[in-house]
Amino acid sequence: MFAFLSWVALAASPVGLDGDAFQIKAKEVVLADGSRIADGVVVVTDGKITRVGAGDADPNLPTLEHDGVLTAGLIACQTRSGGASETVDVTRPFLSDARLVYAFDPSHSDFDKALAAGITSVVLTPADINVAGGVTAVVKTAGGAIVAREAHLALSFSAQALGYSAPRPRFIFGSVDANGTSMDEGGPEVTYVGRRGTRAPTSYGGAVRALGARFEEAGADANSERPLARAAHGDLPVFFEAWSRNEVARAVGFAQKHALQGALRGATLASDPGLLPQIVASGLAVVVGPFRTGHARRSLDAVRALQDAGVKVGFALDAPENDPQAFRLSAAMAVGSGADRTAVLQSLTNVAAEIAGVDARVGSIERGKDADFVLWSGDPLNLTSRVEAVYVDGALAWSADRSAD
Fold it and tell me: Where are the domains of the chain?
């Protein structure tokens, strides 16, 4: 638990809401480069971090001493929290102008659960059933703050986006095909052409052609501010859903042809020596997971392979289908499979912020950044460690003490 030196002062005046300054002295403060400051001091003023360093705390400021680890708040690079039903439209394959920010319900209980897991920002994405699903948004899990109204144009090269008209088997985490056969060794691809669903496009080739034609048309309009045109002009990153080897190859090829930057979600076979160089050459980041106990080893190995190749890696939450408390499990499982521990923690914080395009504001404990941080009982990648308090914009957003009341 905490050792509060000035808890009365902090409780009487909610920090970060009315101009107060305060400081936290933690046993360890983790910085963006992975280094750790022993007995580090973080000063917060008006919801921003104004000082980070070692040494004695300022005797003139209210002080909280924490006998544990302080990190930046965790960032989930993909989720449908707080509005999953609002992100689904089965009638149209191309919804480039839809904006996820309008489906954002900051009062939804999904965000309370995320806070309790140490997650302070999330990338809201649409379902993967549309070839172009709309524009993602980055929001905070407390206070209703919108960090980025337009973060990426969401594109899906997954089988789910083809010929949609009825529920059908889903390619779960890239580990099985529609028949339940393992895809870990690159099993056969299933396109569903002529099998189920009537909404065009009904094939991968049709999806690539139709989307390519839209990109070329949008790119020819130099003055358009619509999302598709902005992506075509390089002003808006893309967020591809692509799971199997062939889906990833198509997404990577499409990104290179149209000079797109952004991220792939899926790519579970990224450790394959035939696929990894294509991902590296594309410059795309990769968003992995979520992983579960017993998940295919090859998917976990992909995290280490991507790290070693210099590819930015983030982690998906995919709530409400998955409990936010399992978010760290994905990261811990990647470490257990050989991924670098420091790099994995960065994938949950500052690298995740870079993938989301919001690293100027969040993702690290640095002067000038938003005061979004978590107090842990121990190392956050040790699953026995607990979240003891979460601060967003300098305000106490969640604490173990309050949740127990």
Answer: 3-72+365-404, 74-356
Q: pTM of the full predicted structure?
A: 0.88
Strands (E), 19-140: 21-30, 36-45, 48-54, 63-72, 74-79, 119-124, 132-135, 137-140
Q: How does 332-344 read in b/e, with b if 16+ C-beta sit within 10 Å?
A: bbbbebebbeebb
What number does CATH give the domain 3-72+365-404?
2.30.40.10
Residue 75 to residue 190: CA distance in whole angstroms: 33
Q: Which two tokens stand for residue 39?
A: 């007995």
Residues 6+ apart with CB under 8 A from 131: 93, 94, 155, 156, 157, 161, 201, 207, 210, 211
Output the six-digit token pair for 373: 């941080």
In angstroms, the CA 225 to CA 230 distance is 6
CATH for the stretch 74-356: 3.20.20.140
How far apart are the C-alpha atoms of 289 and 318, rounded to whole Å?
8
Q: Give yes or no for a contact between 390 and 73, defined as CB atoms under 8 angstroms apart.
A: yes
Look at strands 132-135 and 373-376 and give their pairing.
Answer: unpaired
| 313/319 Cα distance (integer angstroms) | 19
Euclidean distance between the first and the last CA atom of the chain, given in angstroms as a whole number: 15
Render pLDDT for 235-291 as a digit per residue (tens, 0 to 9): 999 999 999 899 999 999 999 999 999 999 998 888 889 899 999 999 999 999 999
Select from 398, 282, 387 the least CA-distant residue to 66: 387
Q: Which helix (H) or strand (E) holds 56?
A: none
Model pLDDT for residues 81-128, shown as the tens digit of each residue: 987 565 667 778 888 999 999 988 999 999 999 999 999 999 999 988
Pick left, alpha or beta for residue 375 (phi over 0 → left; psi -120 to 50 → alpha; otherwise beta).
beta
